[in-house]
Write a structure and sequence with these properties.
Keywords: Transferase. By secondary structure, the protein is an alpha+beta fold. Helices cover 38% and strands 10% of the residues.
Length: 60
Amino acid sequence: MFKDREEVGELLANKLIEYSNNKNVLVVAIPRGAVSIGAIIAEKLNAPLEIVLSKKIGHP
């Protein structure tokens, strides 16, 4: 397991480092936890961050 979301963001960014400074790269994050991870990745890759808002679809 991971210590916290910051550790996860750092690890993912390190795996994606080949995409750094690429103008065609966009980091997309979903609220409720992923935005903090996405922000770390976007900063490390020097890429813009977009947030996608979604709504749960309930089961009838």
